[in-house]
Amino acid sequence: MHRIVILAACVAASVVQAVPTTSQSRRASGDYNYDRCDHVKGPDHWSAEFCGARHNVGAHGVLELSKTRQSPIDVCNAKDHSGVTSSVLQPSSGYNMTKTYKFKMDGQAYIDASDDGLTLTAGMLAQINRPAINHDGTFTWNLAQAHFHWGRGKDEGSEHYIEGKRYPLELHFVHVNSKYADINAALASGEEDALLVVGQMFKVGSGESAELAAMGSKLSSDRRAAHGGVDVNMKLGKLMDPTAGFYTYPGSLTTPTCNPVVTWVVLASELPIAETTLNKFLNIKKGNNTVSEFGNYRPLQAHNGRTVYKTAGITSVACKSAADVEPTFECPVEEEASGAVSTVASLTGSFMAMAVAILAVFAY
């Protein structure tokens, strides 16, 4: 009888451990990802593990805002405000000076501008979006870095949508309030006035800037240099076009830990990018995988009653549902099949455990 008990236990263990599913193999990486079919670490589930309130504790209620002020969103149904005018957005002269920037492309496309002294003023946009901010004057915002988001092809990739329209590439200029020493100190403060991020959309077309062309050429260069970054000479102001006005709203970082401390400025204009240059972004790899397999953009987040403001001259329409504007992601059949097998294995394991217990009773 003891032999029967031992045999049953071995069978139960082998059944429970037998089926490593595709999802399980992805989860083993231990990091968040952009795979919409990953129901544990994919972007639809960041709020639970990677963007929870434990990451967003501040002195003035940011904890409560961590779930209701997430980004990105579709900027639509926007309202006018006397303090939201094109003239309030004032980049410093350094934006239009040729400088040498470190361009990193190891699984990302990232421009380090932390030591270049570029600043921006934006009127009272932070206070208009966040009335809890107790500051009467205009903040100065220091540019820390700029980075790109893209998708699986030329029909998707931007994190924000403008009036229901998506774009293949979005550039984020991340600015830190000058009251903080750096971006880490700003985020650690948990304060609503920590960051201001300007978003610029790109569409496939002719006439791309020399700056985009220069980065495109670096994306074709020696990949071994990607980790430490390569030098690119450019005017960052050529990658930002505020002439058509902008939208603004209170939001968050779009990557974990998703801190809700960002005043967003989404520029209404579109800048052109050559399809050949876009394809070079799409070919960027993270390890052995191409980033564009899933893209590196977060799904749209709910407005949750937030007001989006716009500058005069922009025609804004009612928002559509996310399902109507977002691209589709078809999960492979094997995902469902492996999940079913995993469920069966789990049930079988439970059954075998019961059998072992019963046999143990009779054995003794």
Please explain how this structure is put together.
There is one protein chain. The chain has 364 residues and is of the alpha+beta class. The chain has two domains: 2-22 and 333-363; 71-325, Carbonic Anhydrase II (Roll), CATH 3.10.200.10. It is built from ten helices and 16 strands. α1 runs antiparallel to α10 (333-363) and α7 packs across α8 (275-282).
How far do the termini sit from each other?
Answer: 9 Å
Work out the number of β strands: 16
Q: What is the class of the largest domain in the CATH system?
A: Alpha Beta
Give the CA-based shape.
Answer: globular
Q: What's the quick description here?
A:
This protein is an alpha+beta fold. It has ten helices and 16 strands.
List the helices and strands and how they pair.
Elements: H1 2-17, H2 22-27, H3 46-49, H4 62-65, E1 74-75, E2 79-80, E3 89-91, E4 99-104, E5 110-112, E6 119-122, H5 125-129, E7 140-150, E8 161-162, E9 169-177, H6 183-189, E10 195-204, H7 210-219, E11 230-234, E12 246-251, E13 262-273, H8 275-282, E14 285-286, E15 289-290, E16 309-310, H9 322-325, H10 333-363
Parallel strand pairs: 1-8, 2-16, 10-13
Antiparallel strand pairs: 3-6, 4-5, 4-11, 5-7, 6-7, 7-9, 9-10, 12-13, 12-16, 14-15
Helix pairs in contact: 1-10, 7-8
